Amino acid sequence: MAFDHIVAGCRAMLEAVPEDRLDWRPHEKSWTLGELATHIAMIPNWTVPTLTMSEFDIDPEDGGPPPNPELGSLSPSAAELVAALDQSAAAARASIESTSDETFATRNRGRSGNWRLTSR
């Protein structure tokens, strides 16, 4: 499954992140290496709302996006990032496996589909 291949690549990348360089940023306007690595670890979290909701407000008045797995600190270690990826990938896999072919067909319509990303 392509999902497993992608998660394996992300896992290898996170395992290679040098923990003593998590605060490095290539440019003052760029995210730090730690922020980028955290983003990679959390990307699978978008799978569940994408497959279970018809509309998703990225900036709701009562809170923010879906909760992320606990990382344990604001400066996670490579091991914590890998654990977070494993946790978010497991939730994504469960959602993928429990989603019907009919749901995939309706979620895969692109611009003409019925899934909307909204904001205030």
Key phrases:
5% strand, 2 strands, 120 residues, mainly alpha, two-stranded parallel ribbon
Report on this model:
With 120 residues, this protein is mainly alpha-helical. It contains five helices and two strands, in the order H-H-H-E-H-H-E. A two-stranded parallel ribbon has the order 1-2. Helix 2 packs parallel to helix 4. The longest helix is centred in the last third of the chain and has 21 residues, at 78-98. It is globular. It starts with a helix and ends with a strand. The mean pLDDT is 79.
At a glance:
This protein has five helices and two strands. It is mainly alpha-helical and 120 residues long. The radius of gyration is 16 Å and the shape is globular.
Helicity, as a percent range: 40-55%
Q: Estimate what percentage of residues fall within beta strands.
A: 5-15%
Give the neighbour order of strands across the main sheet: 1-2
| Helix/strand order, N-terminal first | HHHEHHE
Shape: globular
Name the poorly predicted regions.
none
Largest sheet: 2 strands, parallel
The N- to C-terminal Cα distance equals 37 Å
Q: Helix- and strand-based class?
A: mainly alpha
Give the count of helical stretches: 5
Please give the radius of gyration in angstroms: 16 Å
Number of strands: 2
Mean pLDDT: 79
Question: What is the topological layout?
Answer:
Blueprint: H1 2-15, H2 33-42, H3 47-52, E1 55-57, H4 78-98, H5 101-107, E2 116-118
Parallel strand pairs: 1-2
Helix pairs in contact: 1-4, 2-4
